[in-house]
Description:
The complex is a heterodimer of chains A (117) and B (156). Chain A is α/β, with parallel strands linked by helices and 117 residues long. Chain A contains four helices and seven strands; from the N terminus they run E-E-E-H-E-E-H-E-H-E-H. Chain A is 41% helix and 25% strand. The two termini of chain A are 23 Å apart. Chain B has one domain: 2-Layer Sandwich (Heat Shock Protein 90). The longest helix of chain B is centred in the first third of the chain and has 22 residues, at 39-60. The two termini of chain B are 19 Å apart. The chains are: A alpha/beta (117), B alpha+beta (156). The A-B interface holds A 26-28, 59, 61-63, 65-67, 69-70, 73, 90, 94, 97-100, 102-103 and B 18, 22, 39-40, 43-44, 46-47, 50-51, 54, 99-100, 105-109, 111-112, 114-115, 118.
Amino acid sequence: MAEYRRLDVNEVGDVTVVRFRDHKIVEDLNIQELGQEMFQLAESEKRGKLVLNFSAVEFLSSAALGKLITLDKKVKAHGGLLKFSNIRPEIYEVFAITKLNRLFDIKDDEADALAAF
Amino acid sequence: MSEEHWIWRSDHVISSDTGAGRRVLEEVLDQLKAQHWVPRDIFAVHLAMHEALVNAIVHGNKLAPDKHVHISCRIAPCLVRIEIADEGNGFDPTNVPDPTDPDRLESPTGRGVMLIKAFMSRVEFNEQGNQVALEKRRAGETVSHGRRAPSCPASP
């Protein structure tokens, strides 16, 4: 399995559960690295079922939203499924205001996300 | 500036460097925490100020090393006001495409101005579009970190 700097990657059955190591996804360099690692999961490793657990994320910028959109496209392009979980209320508000809660499949917690595949 | 009783002020002129902008932002957030603002309001200021600084540094000044960003920060008991001015050509803030439009929903960019307006109590651009003033009114009387915040009037 590849080594990741920005992500903690674990397998739960046939689902890949990803947690972010950064509490604040805001710095350009970190977002670029984060994007590369997420895209590697989707494209190189062709993970078909992905859960992104946001429990450690306290803040994210609009640039991070952009990376998540691109990730969603890449996963779908390979016929995969992507779900988000454990999003804090203030960050969920960002998804709701931008209407990205309609694009992404967001679940309350990891268990709900795993059960939804 | 409005007729507020400012209890904290900080003014900076920074280069077109996101790291320098981040340090100013952290200073503001530290002050808001010291004044016991609720986490939700601090998050709002964090997001809006970050997006406005990125707009100034990256889009306004195009990261040009010879261009600067002027930042003015004021905190009153019930209000925080941030003014950010870049040295770029400006833009028309009334002509920003709606990123929630179905045709643009999957675009990876274009949400900064929308988020700024959504999370701030008031946002004002100058005519040229290279200066923005952000205001956030403090939430009403609340308990934060075990301390009771001042009673602030509700936003109009």
